[in-house]
Design brief:
This protein is of the alpha/beta class. The protein has one domain: TIM Barrel, CATH 3.20.20.210. Helices cover 45% and strands 12% of the residues. Strands 1-4-5-8-9-10-11 form a seven-stranded parallel beta sheet. It has a two-stranded antiparallel ribbon with strand order 2-3. Strands 6-7 form a two-stranded antiparallel ribbon. The longest helix has 24 residues. Bound molecules: coproporphyrinogen I. Coproporphyrinogen I (1CP) binds next to strand 3.
Amino acid sequence: MTRPSNDTFLRALFREPAAHIPVWLMRQAGRYLPEYRALRAHAGDFMALCKNPALASEIALQPLARYALDAAIVFSDILTIPDAMGLGLSFVENEGPKFEHPLRNERQIRRLFVPDPFDRLRYVTDAVSATRKALNGAVPLIGFAGSPYTLACYMIEGSRSNDFRFVKTMMYSRPDLMRRILEIVTEAVLRSLNAQIESGAQVVMIFDSWGGNLATAAFQEFSLFYMRQIIAGLIKKKEGERIPSIIFAKGGGMWLEAIASTGCEALGLDWMTDIGEARRRVGREVALQGNLDPGVLFAPPENIAAETGKVIDAYGPDATGFIFNLGHGISQFTPPEHVAALIRTVHEHRLTKGKNLVSGY
Ligand code: 1CP
């Protein structure tokens, strides 16, 4: 298999020089786009979209029709895995995800099983292959999953949480049960990511959205330990092309060295982390993806251009190993025309043909 015609994203992930700085946005397909809202209204709800591979692939391509994005991401959700484990997922309008059977007792935990990604999660692998086909080699396709810890947070709390009371109660009073959940979810995530690679994903990303709520030692023990196992178990090459992996740990700015040591190709950075400093710390080991505050997109286009320029400048004059993104998902209240200003600024940025990062930044 040859590389996509626009391979700037893959080049940046491998820290090879690229023609321009690649850019894509977390949640680039979604509620801020009127064409997404129209399809969702037609399908009924969000999960109906995820479960229909033709619609999922159409939605994944919607932002690419509007903007010159350098990557596509599969349209799905991290919570499909716990749903396939029997927790009963639903999305309540304006309230977010809810599980009918959150994990609250030992009996439920003992009964947990690893779902077969080609059976109970067939709609995900079908969405991957349909999207890859629809892309027709234009840009690389990203497959993804939540980190075991982040999935466990939703599985134990049953919805989003401000204090993670149930998670922390279990972690500090019955760490054996917490570890049991994490082991099973780790296997489920690994199998799902490998199934997505088998189905056509060219890059995989792990979202550790809630690892940042842990103390440093607990992050190592309850989040990083499991992400390390996943990175080690991923399919590394498919049809002659290497499959890079990205870890995004929101609130993980203190732990960049530890996260880079998992062997992933890139780290996603939230907007609280200074990207220049991150590069000095781990730029010899990994590529960096990030990290504009998504709130910048509420400002007028000139201000967006200025703030975007600041992130690029902070990374440094030689942009090797840099993928522009937001520091977290795009807000549903973002005016779509503001995104165009961001993409234009990134692509028009003049690259200094400097030293290759690998040979001695
Ligand atoms: O139409 C709707 O109301 C659904 C909104 C929506 C969308 C568009 C949800 C519900 N999920 C998604 C898609 C999604 N989620 C994608 C693919 C689309 C793309 O990126 O273009 C991805 C990669 C995710 C990942 C995801 N889901 C994360 C990790 C990233 C992050 O934001 O931290 C998390 C935590 C979720 C859970 C989830 N699913 C949906 C919502 C609103 C949430 C967040 C719940 C919360 O705030 O705790």
